[in-house]
Amino acid sequence: MSATPELVIKDLHVGIEGKEILKGLNLEVKRGEIHALMGPNGSGKSTLANTLMGHPKYEVTSGEILFKGESLLEMEADERSRAGLFMAFQYPVAIPGLSVANFLRTALNARLAPSENDGSGAVPKKRGIAPKEFRALLKEKMALLKMDESFAGRYLNDGFSGGEKKRAEILQMAVLKPEIAIMDETDSGLDIDALRIVSDGVNALAGPGMGVLVITHYQRILNYIKPHKVHVMVDGRIQISGGPELALQLESRGYDWVRNGKEAVAR
Ligand SMILES: Nc1ncnc2c1ncn2[C@@H]1O[C@H](COP(=O)(O)OP(=O)(O)OP(=O)(O)O)[C@@H](O)[C@H]1O
Ligand SMILES: [Mg+2]
Q1: Is the beta carbon of 46 within 6 A of some atom in ligand 1?
Q2: Which of 34, 76, 79, 133 sits between 20 and 30 A of 85, alpha carbons compared?
Q3: What residues pair up with 104 in beta bridges, in sequence order?
Q4: What residue's CA is closest to ligand 1, atom 7?
Q5: DSSP 8-state code for residue 234
Q6: Per-residue pLDDT of the chain (267 residues; tens, 9 = 90+)
């Protein structure tokens, strides 16, 4: 395992339409670690996720984000995912006519391909995975996630239940093998069975190869996904960090004591 965390966020300030939302956020996530990010509504959790994926609306006014030692802010959104940053969306779009298998193969080939704009002006060589090899990979990953093979032939997210969308996302993670995965509100709208599927998937994948940042409101998912660290965001900053016990404290005590603690510190 590398000594330097793959994802390093330093004193990040982000604004939307002139309003500052993130106000000096520091966070480090490395491969092999599961981090949970919690915090009240509107504290800036999704703003962080959107900023990491390069959403154009979110303006970074100061601070930096390093991904594998390079400035993430200088990369386009597609370069970020090719580099190994993965984002699981709360509401993934349906693509009728595109099968899960074809989508995954295209996504994997994009990840395997060298950057089209490496500055050298050279035409990038094709390095895609062979169809046969891909089928074997897909079969292996679907078995790992206990998914029915027929799933691969369905159209992406078209008529998928909430739980199936989440499974498709976990499968995507298994195939693409990102170094860092960010999951925003992955648990919202999931029943207990689906929650377990998502959690088992994350636990199966988050080994030495992958680090995960799970953004969640509920301690519930953390009964299944065991985080190494829990962070609480209040008003655009991580106010307090701790171990899994912190999530339990939040469940029983709410967020007020974190806010009050902040005032006590500020004074
Ligand atoms: N695209 C946007 N346009 C305008 N305001 C936005 C936008 N995105 C976020 N905000 C504002 O930024 C603040 C933080 O929102 P954000 O979605 O990051 O919070 P959150 O911590 O994810 O909340 P929740 O727990 O409800 O998901 C809110 O005041 C929100 O209204
Ligand atoms: Mg949010």
Answers
A1: yes
A2: 133
A3: none
A4: 16
A5: E
A6: 557 999 999 999 999 999 999 999 999 999 999 999 999 999 999 999 999 999 999 999 999 999 999 999 999 988 998 899 998 866 677 888 899 999 999 989 988 876 555 555 555 556 689 999 999 999 999 988 888 899 999 998 888 887 888 888 889 999 999 999 999 876 667 778 778 878 888 888 887 889 999 998 777 788 888 899 999 999 999 999 999 999 888 888 888 888 876 544 443
The atom of ligand 1 lying closest to the CA of 47 is: 18
Q: Give the atom of ligand 1 at the shortest distance from the alpha carbon of 43.
A: 21
Q: Is 43 in the pocket of ligand 1 (CB under 6 A)?
A: yes
236 CB near ligand 1 (under 6 Å): no
- How many whole angstroms separate alpha carbon 267 and alpha carbon 260? 11
- Residue 58 CA: which ligand is closest? 1
| Class of domain 7-266 (CATH, top level) | alpha beta
Residue 19 CB-density burial (10 A; 0-12 exposed, 13-18 middle, 19+ buried): exposed
Output the CA–CA distances (angstroms, integers) from residue 37 to 3, 47, 100, 140, 151, in the order listed: 22, 12, 29, 31, 31
Residue to mutate, 20, 38, 43, ligand 1, most ligand atoms under 8 Å from C-beta: 43
